[in-house]
Write a structure and sequence with these properties.
The complex is a heterodimer of chains A (about 170) and B (about 500).
Chain A (H helix, E strand, L loop, with lengths): L1 H26 L6 H30 L17 E8 L2 E4 L3 E3 L3 E8 L4 E6 L5 E7 L5 E6 L4 E7 L11 E7 L1
Chain B lengths: L6 H36 L7 H31 L7 H24 L22 H33 L2 H4 L2 H4 L11 H32 L7 H35 L7 H16 L13 H30 L8 H23 L2 H7 L4 H28 L7 H26 L11 H34 L8 H6 L1
Classes of the chains: A alpha+beta (about 170), B mainly alpha (about 500).
GO molecular function, one term (chain B): cytochrome-c oxidase activity
Protein name (chain B): Cytochrome C oxidase subunit I
InterPro entries (chain B): Cyt_c_oxase-like_su1_dom, Cyt_c_oxase-like_su1_sf, Cyt_C_Oxase_1
Chain lengths: ~170, ~500
């Protein structure tokens, strides 16, 4: 799950930064001439900076390979189910709410009034995908459910006092 | 430079600075209370109506950003005045307009139940589903506009003063040094470079903010006047992202100024430093689109740019500023006290907060973490442990150099408690985000409640620590100007 990867990666780097700052604090009471320190650590910075740039470039290229904005390539004769979704204060209008496992679905999401967020949650309340529901615009989400069950659509953009009550269930069967 | 100013004038000037800081700090403390109440409500420990929750949400966001920006502007002004001639009148006008704006916002939110959150996404101010009316919306939006005008005047003045002294804003950023026309030894000092950057980005941000506020105001008065929601969203996030981030770029000036005094090591601008600040200027202006990664109707190149440049924007802090702070402290024999301790912690907070921010700016991650509590997780870290710690560092520094007030063991305990508490608050937000808890929800499902409750309790400790910081600063205000010697700055901290 992407969330777990994000959390572990963040923890590792945050821990590394904590250790570096901690070591510097521990070494701060010693007093040494600044020039040799500058010379040594400027040199180290060139290596560190270059490594970081290369690392960011690699991660950027890797993570931009497949974007959620891109329409998937569907197999022949396997046209997606288009589901029109309209958000409104404070509910959802769906053209369809029952789907099959493996059925490619395109949610075409808009809003009748203010900005809302369209978040698809599984039964364990993990967020699977989302997009913004905007007036005058239609955003698309491409989903194929792998597991049967009841999925909830939660509003993920603050839209007024009943924002947290905007929940709609959809069913996915075998 | 302080030694060039006579003591009476210094006392008067520091009085204005102290006003900025005390107003900012008190508002921040009060906003913490609203934050705690919201977390306790989400944790199931407190019964808040949805109306109250979203009013608290609105005032918390508005108040935190406004107050921190206000206090940070005071910090920037304090140090920048040593290099350029700033207008005291404009500084006072900003204070007056800030207070007027704050009063309007408070009345709008609490008397007229206005609750659009501080992002006021069009057309929510006008379309509240009858939760609030025209008067509440107008009080809030016009109040924000008044606040913005005050800040805009201030940055126009800093821009004017920098241009007058250095010739242009480009030269304030040291472009003539970068291009080799000028020697590194003649580069503008870090305070001027940072102030130039903030001037450029905030004039842009405030212009964008004023535009979308005015359009919202017209829409509230006359709903027949409509405008493009996507344009409105772009303007809102351009304003919000840049203005919020400028707080840290103003706050870091205190780190540039005081760590060299505490370590007796210079922190001067060189070519790499100047390039880093030009990168920060450019990227800060451009990366607001990472707030719109879930708007697939946006041009795809803007969203890809949002990710790529967000990564790139981490480089100046990770490679230059944080690294510089670590180098200057390493084996320096520094004498740790409240000001130097908070300044160093603030650099830690900023750096460590960059990590979850960069992770969230990754489009495939944002797809499942946007508008979850991961977002407040990272910004509480680099704002709470970063920017706000910078403000507190300055408060202790000013009290030290402008009075004979001593800190006590209570202050030191407060520093430890504050650090642990804000790490806990940020951490619970990140955990909540990792388990998909949406942000800005008045109530939580049971499985989401635990971290929120923990955060609310940690918030209480953070508030108590902040109160101790404020009490120390109020004690300073009562005895300010009692420090001996006109060049006390350097003597006291060395």
């Amino acid at each position: 799950m992407i969330q777990t990867v994000a959390w572990i990666v963040s923890l590792i780097f945050m821990l590394f930064i904590t250790i570096v700052f901690g070591v510097v604090v521990l070494k701060s009471k010693e007093k040494r001439d600044y020039d040799p320190i500058k010379k040594k650590w400027y040199k180290a910075r060139s290596f560190y900076g270059t490594t970081l740039v290369v690392f960011f470039l690699v991660i950027t290229i890797y993570t931009l390979r497949e974007l959620p904005y891109n329409q998937p390539v569907y197999g022949e004769g396997k046209d997606p189910t288009i589901v029109d979704v309209e958000a409104l204060q404070f509910g959802w209008n769906f053209s369809e709410t029952e789907f099959k496992v493996g059925e490619p679905i395109e949610f075409h999401v808009t809003s009748a009034d203010v900005n809302h967020g369209f978040g698809i949650y599984d039964e364990d309340r993990n967020l699977l995908a989302q997009t913004q529901a905007m007036p005058e615009y239609t955003n698309k989400v491409y989903v194929t459910f792998d597991e049967p069950g009841t999925y909830d659509i939660l509003c993920l953009e603050y839209c007024g006092l009943a924002h947290h009550l905007m929940i709609q269930s959809i069913e996915v069967t075998e | 430079m302080s030694s060039l100013v006579n003591k009476g004038e210094l006392k008067q000037r520091n009085g204005q600075i102290a006003s900025y800081l005390i107003i900012g700090a008190v508002v921040i403390a009060v906003m913490m209370v609203f934050g705690i109440l919201m977390l306790l409500a989400q944790g199931g420990m407190l019964n808040l109506s949805a109306a109250n929750f979203y009013q608290f949400l609105t005032i918390h966001g508005t108040g935190m950003i406004g107050a921190a920006a206000f206090a940070a502007a005071g910090v920037m002004w304090y140090f920048l005045r040593d290099y350029v001639q700033l207008s005291k009148k404009i500084f006072t006008w900003n204070l007056v307009l800030f207070l007027i704006g704050v009063v309007m916002v408070i009345i709008g939110v609490f008397s007229f139940e206005y609750a659009s959150s501080w992002t006021f996404l069009y057309p929510l101010p006008a379309l509240s589903a009858n939760a609030w009316g025209t008067v509440g919306a107008l009080l809030y939006l016009v109040g924000m506009l008044v606040l913005g005008v005050g800040f805009l005047l201030l940055y126009i003045d800093t821009g004017r003063a920098i241009i007058k002294k250095y010739g242009s804003l480009g030269k304030g950023l040291g472009w003539d040094v970068i291009s080799g026309k000028k020697a590194e030894k003649d580069a503008p000092p870090p305070t001027v470079v940072a102030s130039t950057m903030v001037t450029i980005v905030n004039v842009t941000a405030l212009t964008a903010g004023a535009t979308v506020l005015i359009m919202n105001i017209i829409n509230v008065v006359n709903p027949a006047f409509t405008f493009d929601p996507l344009l409105a969203k772009n303007l809102t996030y351009a304003f919000g992202h840049i203005f919020a981030n400028s707080i840290i770029y103003m706050g870091v000036i205190v780190v540039y100024e005081i760590l060299p005094r505490y370590t007796n090591r210079p922190w001067k601008s060189n070519r790499i430093f100047l390039i880093a600040w030009t990168m920060s200027t450019t990227f800060t202006l451009l990366i607001y689109t990472h707030h719109m990664l879930m708007d697939s109707v946006m041009p795809k190149w803007m969203l890809i740019m949002g990710q790529a440049l967000s990564y790139a924007n981490g480089l100046p802090v990770l490679v230059i500023t944080a690294y510089g702070a670590l180098m200057i402290v390493y084996k320096s024999g520094i004498k740790w006290d409240m000001a130097s301790g908070l300044a160093f912690i603030s650099m830690f907070g900023w750096t460590v907060g960059v990590v979850p921010a960069i992770v969230d700016a990754t489009i495939v991650v944002n797809h499942v973490m946007h508008n979850t509590k991961w977002v407040p997780g990272h910004f509480h870290m680099y704002m709470g442990l970063g920017a706000v710690a910078m403000l507190f560092a300055f408060m202790y520094y000013l009290a030290k150099v402008d009075s004979n007030l001593e800190t006590t063991i209570l202050d030191k305990i407060a520093l430890i408690v504050y650090t642990l508490a804000i790490i806990s608050v940020s951490g619970q937000f990140l955990v909540s985000g990792a388990i998909s808890t949406p942000r800005r929800w008045a109530t939580h499902f049971p499985e989401w409640m635990g971290p929120a409750l923990f955060g609310g309790i940690a918030g209480v400790f953070m508030f108590l620590a902040t109160v101790i910081f404020i009490v120390h600063f109020i004690s300073y205000i009562q005895v300010r100007g009692t420090s001996t010697g006109s060049d006390f700055d350097d003597k006291k901290v060395a």
